[in-house]
Write a structure and sequence with these properties.
This protein is α+β, with helices and mostly antiparallel strands and about 200 residues long. The protein is built from five helices and seven strands, in the order H-E-H-H-E-E-E-E-E-E-H-H. Strands 1-2-3-4 form a four-stranded antiparallel beta sheet, covered by helices on one side. Helix 1 packs antiparallel against helix 2, helix 2 packs antiparallel against helix 3 and helix 4 crosses helix 5. The longest helix has 27 residues. The protein is elongated, with a radius of gyration of 21 Å.
């Protein structure tokens, strides 16, 4: 019974990862430009429906795990320890689901002349432009990778609304040495910034 429970947990975990990747591939591209009041910081967000979809996806394996554990326990197929383990696994998946729902409404990046602040579901992280030691672009994942002097990291996905506005600001504020390790990152920033200018000319 313990083996079957463990196998179910592993399979559901694999399904969750595959489903998350599938939904990620279906994400709508972010708008390169978002209107904002002059002087106000730039706020970048992923569209809420993406986070909500991830949260709903995680609810499925959580419900299945809880159901399997309850049925096995009532049928005498597993002991208290096995039932508790299954419920713990279901609780962890449920916690991930709740995190996704909270992130859908709370998570954002606030960018200004001083630096980048990530407001997550639970905590905030801020990196000043001058403290960025490495700034790279990962084409396979379509996100920018930021490493601060103290070792902190930020990841900014290309599907964030306002990513072109961010690119224009980053190109002008980042220390040149931070982009030296990635010969392509400046070109990516310039392409996104140009897309913002084209959007402005169009309308």
């Amino acid at each position: 019974a313990m083996f079957r429970t463990a196998l179910a947990i592993i399979l559901l975990g694999v399904l969750l990862v595959i489903g998350r990747r599938f939904l990620g591939a279906l994400r709508p591209p972010g708008r390169v430009h978002v209107p904002r009041v002059p002087g106000e910081p730039l706020v970048l967000r992923v569209r809420k429906r993406v986070g909500i979809a991830f949260g709903l996806l995680a609810l499925i394996p959580a419900a299945i795990l809880a159901s399997l554990g309850a049925r096995a326990f009532t049928a005498g197929g597993t002991g208290t320890a096995g039932f508790a383990g299954t419920l713990l696994a279901a609780g962890l998946v449920l916690a991930f689901s709740v995190h996704q729902f909270v992130s859908a409404f709370r998570s954002r990046y606030v960018v200004d002349e001083a630096g980048i602040e990530h407001v997550g579901a639970v905590r905030r992280r801020q990196v000043r432009w001058g403290d960025v030691r490495k700034f790279a672009y990962k084409p396979h994942a379509h996100w920018f990778f930021v490493t601060a002097a103290d070792g902190r990291h930020l990841w900014l996905s290309e599907d964030l609304d306002g990513i072109g506005d961010f690119a224009a600001l980053a190109a002008s504020r980042l220390p040149p040495a931070a982009m030296a390790g990635d010969p392509n990152v400046r070109e990516v920033l310039e392409e996104l910034a140009e897309a913002v200018r084209e959007a402005a000319r169009a309308g």
